[in-house]
Amino acid sequence: MSQSESSRNVVVVIGTGGMGVAAARRLASGRRLVLADNSPERLESVVAVLQSEGHAVEGHPVDVTDRKSVEDLANAAGSGGRIEAVVHTAGVSPVMGTARQIYEVDLLGTAHVIDAFLAVVSPGTSLICIASMGGQLTSLPADFERHLATAPSDQLLLHEGIDLDKADSATAYAVAKRGNQLRVQGAAQTWGRKGARLNTISPGVISTPMSLLELQGPTGVFIQSMIDASGAGRFGTPDDVAGVVAFLAGPDSSFITGNDILVDGGTISALRWNAEAKA
Q: Is 112 helix (H, G, I), strand (E, B) or coil?
């Protein structure tokens, strides 16, 4: 590592899917980029591409379901300089895994990221977790929401509302993504004591390989109808999300923490108020 690279602030991006790579490219210039993923092959490939584009980037394997693995990533990133931003995009969609996998990766994995990086953040650090518009459409009992927001991570999956083995994957995904939004709310004060912030972004239907799989699944027709009825009338792109990531990572959002930003092209508005979408 050159002397100029060692003096740069650090940006961590967890997940090398479409949104993760777009966010990495948006934030990498002039910073040290720490890229993490659970697939060594995919991680190595993306690191090589970004390095070929001139970015200072290193790869770290991580399993977000394993708290020790996430702590190792946080410590490695923190030892390399001041962490400016952490972007957590890793997740499993309903067509990609079982309810258990979704709860463990999407819900517990996000809790691990929030907990582990708290130890290495400093004033000005911003954590951005990718949730989903599905979380904003999910209504849960108040006691369940409190559990999702505040339960210790080792007890997070121990609630009657979470059935790891019998729940359908779509329900698990909605609960997990609502849990992401609540978890960030619940941690905002603790992070604030260190001068750091954290927020969620809830994308709508974004054109990524994961979304294309969803379109081919049993809910594909409904998803397409939502896109057609939305205000934007199109798929979102990873760059649409990366633009909001850059805003939340920077000083212009310094008074925003514990919040969720919906980036859905008006899909939820259509579902709530347009007869065409409801049909």
A: helix
- One digit per residue, the tens of pLDDT, for the chain of length 279 reads 554 566 799 999 999 999 999 999 999 999 999 999 999 999 999 999 999 999 999 999 999 999 999 999 999 999 989 999 999 999 999 988 999 999 999 999 999 999 999 999 999 999 999 999 999 999 999 999 999 999 999 999 999 999 999 999 999 999 999 999 999 999 999 999 999 999 999 999 998 777 777 777 777 788 888 888 889 989 999 999 999 999 999 999 999 999 999 999 999 999 888 755 454
pTM score over 0.85: yes
Is 173 part of the annotated catalytic residue set? yes
Q: Under a CB-based contact definition with an 8 Å cutoff, are residues 244 and 27 in contact?
A: no
Query: What count of other Cβ atoms lies within 10 Å of the Cβ of residue 172?
Result: 25
- Among residues 68, 103, 166, 173, the one annotated as catalytic is 173
Backbone φ and ψ of 201, nearest 5°: -115, 130
**Cα–Cα distance for residue pair 174/103, rounded to 1 Å:** 10
Kindly state the helix (H) or strand (E) to which residue 152 belongs, with its residue range: none
What is the rounded CA–CA span in Å between residue 197 and residue 124? 7
Between CA 100 and CA 164 the distance in angstroms is 4
103 in catalytic set: no
Helix (H) or strand (E) holding 165: none
Determine the distance from the C-alpha atom of residue 123 to the mean position of all C-alpha atoms in its chain, rounded to a whole number: 21
Among the listed residues 68, 177, 194, 278, the single catalytic one is: 177
